[in-house]
Every structure is written in C-alpha cells, then in structure tokens.
C-alpha cells in the first residue's frame, strides 16, 4: 500500500511538473539578433525622392516574417535612420512587454489578427541597422493587444511605408 501511494504521488508530481512547464513564460533579450531570411516574398518599391529623403513601400507576402524582412531591407539599402508605419493582417505574432526586473521582454503570443497600428524607427545599434517597432493588433473578439513587436507572420498582406532620412537623425544606441 505504501509503495503504491509513493508511485501515485510520484506520477502526480511528474504530471504537475509537466503541466507547470506548459505554462512557463518565455522571455527574450531586447538585444537578441533578428533571424533574417524569413521573408522571401517581400517586394520593395521606391515611391518618392525628396532631396536625399526617400520613401519606400515594402509589400510582404503571406507567411513572410515582418521583422526579418524589415531588417533585411535596412541592411540591403544601408538604412541608418528611418521611420515607418504599416497596415495588414497577421497569421500569428509575438509581442513583448519589457519586464524591468528581468531586463527582458516577456513574450506574449497573439493569433490571427489585424494590424490596427504599426509604427517604428530604424537606427544603428552595434554598427548595424535595427528596427524598433510598436504594434497594435486587433483580434476577432474586438480586443486590441499593443506591445513591442518581436515576430509577425503575415496573413494575406502587410504594407510598410518607410521614409529613409539622409543622416543619422536619431541618437545612436550603444
């Protein structure tokens, strides 16, 4: 009887431990490198030039990862100072809330949604262009989720309008 009780208790603890792991919160560093090569369908078009300021539109295809594609654009076009806005649809996304006690982003997954607001800037960090994006995603239940954008897989489309400035207007992060 005692042995059976110990086995039952052990099985219960294992089950409880596995269940707790399923709810473990993911955190990521704010300076982790962006994985590139995840937006094979993105198209870039120069819309206008005003002196040395250029405005582009980036049109992403379904299943492209938006942060990856924007980062690749900034690297390929040598962008060191820009701002952008966007609209579109999302298959899935990860947004982050900055937890000051951990000095990391708490990852919050979001399912299918619509981008009701997306804005950000590109600056230089450790010698490379980095996109800093904030997004507001509206889910089918009418709830909006706004945070720092970590990852975004495009639904039917995502259009980003990027204005590239001629100089390093923003303070360079170090």
Using only C-alpha atoms, the radius of gyration works out to 21 Å
Q: Provide the CATH topology.
A: 60s Ribosomal Protein L30, Chain: A
Fourth CATH level, the homologous superfamily: Hypothetical protein, similar to alpha- acetolactate decarboxylase, domain 2
How many individual domains?
1
Helix content: 10-25%
Terminal CA distance reads 64 Å
Coarse structural class: alpha+beta
CATH class: Alpha Beta
If you had to describe this structure to a student in words, what would you say it looks like?
Strands 1, 2, 3, 4, 5, 6, 7 and 8 form an 8-stranded antiparallel beta sheet that branches. The protein is an alpha+beta fold and 174 residues long. Helices cover 18% and strands 51% of the residues. The chain has one domain (26-164): 60s Ribosomal Protein L30, Chain: A (2-Layer Sandwich), CATH 3.30.1330. The longest helix is centred in the N-terminal third of the chain and has 21 residues, at 2-22. It is globular. The chain starts with a helix and ends in a 10-residue tail after the last strand. It has helices spanning 2-22, 66-76; strands at 27-28, 43-50, 53-60, 82-99, 104-110, 113-125, 128-138, 144-164. 26% of the residues are buried. A hairpin with a 4-residue loop joins strand 4 and strand 5. The protein has 2 helices and 8 strands.
